[in-house]
């Protein structure tokens, strides 16, 4: 009798922020409810309530990581983010306005172990 150990498969749909250059370390956390949509590549910070929110200033806020997949906070209550590893530089953004990151912002991410490629 042949035993097939495969019990299932899964896949990701849509574009993701992480790359395969360095295996990512993913974490998940609660998002602030009814706080808009978080695109993939958005830098996430932790607010005073422990919720994930768009990071406006990487120098002064507690950075959690990079949002890996789009999250609609009106319908979803958890985001999966890259806490360590490589991410796509062209997808990175900060703040509710999705502003581009500066060289200082990228250096701050590198100090946390998140590398833009």
Number of domains: 1
Separation of the first and last Cα atoms: 48 Å
CATH superfamily: Head decoration protein D
Task: Name the CATH architecture.
Answer: Beta Barrel
* Overall 3D form: globular
- Structural class of the secondary elements? mainly beta
* Main sheet: strands, sense, barrel: 6 strands, mixed
Can you tell me the CATH class?
A: Mainly Beta
Average of per-residue pLDDT values: 90
Strand portion, in percent? 25-35%
How would you characterize this protein structure?
This protein is mostly beta strands and 117 residues long. The protein has one domain: Virus Head Decoration Protein, Chain: A. The protein is built from one helix and eight strands. Strands 1, 3, 4, 5, 7 and 8 form a six-stranded mixed beta sheet that branches. Strand 7, helix 1 and strand 8 form a beta-alpha-beta unit. The longest helix has 9 residues.
What's the arrangement of secondary structure elements?
Layout: E1 25-30, E2 37-38, E3 43-46, E4 52-54, E5 63-67, E6 71-72, E7 78-87, H1 103-111, E8 114-116
Parallel strand pairs: 7-8
Antiparallel strand pairs: 1-7, 2-6, 3-4, 3-5, 5-7
